[in-house]
Amino acid sequence: MVKNFCRGRDLAIVRRRNDAGVGMSFEAIRPYTDEEVPVVLDALARDERLARTAASFVAPLLSRWFGPPIRAWVAFRIRRLLRPVRSVGEFQQLLARAFAWLVEETTDGFTYSGVEVLDPKMRYLFVSNHSDIALDSAFLNYALHLAGHPTTRIAFGDNLLSTGYAAEIMRLNKGFVVNRSAKAGKAAFAAMLETSQFIRHSIESGESVWIAQREGRAKDGCDRTDAAIVKMFTLAYRKEVDDLSEVVARLGIVPVAISYEYDPCDMAKAKELAVKAAGGTYEKEPGEDLRSVTTGVLGQKGRVHLHVGAPLSGTFADPEAVAAEIDRQIVAGFKLFPSHLWAAAREGVAGVAAPSSVPRMRRRVDACPPALRDTLLLQYANPVRQAQARPTVDSPSARAL
Q: Does residue 6 contact residue 40 with C-beta atoms inside 8 Å?
């Protein structure tokens, strides 16, 4: 029996069936099905935190001075938007319209490249760098949607289950849960095996999958694939396929690079990095994951570029070799903005000249407490260091919205 955040509302009735070919062993992690959508949306429409967050974005001044009536009006609008939605596909169409508006309001433009070389009849395992909790996969799915490709299932950590409405939206948006709470022993292996099996099941049943190249966001700007992620991919095949290269080919692994001119969460990341650099242990505050989600989604990001690489092919000796190829393509496809180059010049990266005009980046650094400025600059400078350390390849021309 599974419950969602709906104040104890029981979903056992709608979860009795083995929908969409998903085995019952995936009950605790799978995305919501069409049958479950009305129940979950009914709860979302009454979630006070969702209404408060939406009100603070669409009417920041009014919600500050006239909070209760503005939140009530926003909640009414949310209920009207959600009332006719009865399937995952309809919910994603609603999200696509909302995301187009979000791109208009929170970015200075979104461009993408490489999507046009994908085969719309194929299904892929997209492995991307990870800067934002919710948006990295969202921008990929938006680019796929614009190009006429099916959207992906989205892997997200079980730590986000405590975010309430954010986690519910993710599961409605084809998100599935990765159990990261189990850190060692049989429980950890069982969690990795379940994730691996679900990814394999998804690919073989016609669903592409997005997953980050490592656990957690790269808060220092260094995008590196964890070979343990690649090892996890292979677990579902361990009893029938000995050749790693064949597993890679079956999964259709495609590296994805996403770059933001400005990271709305950079100050929070700088604080965490500074604590760790001083030898301390960073402890998340209650509700910090939800704040990170909303800050990333609603904050100003400048320009955003996403590049889809080529499906991995050839011979791979070990998971480290697979991780290295994913890294090579991500670094090659990562777009360096003036904010990155300016930070790299400030950090003394050899051969980098500071752009002449980056007033927004200057203001960002000036507003940062002096004790955090080095760790803030590090996040923007490290992608330049990585680009210098790896050979680049030509990428397809970018498409702009």
A: yes
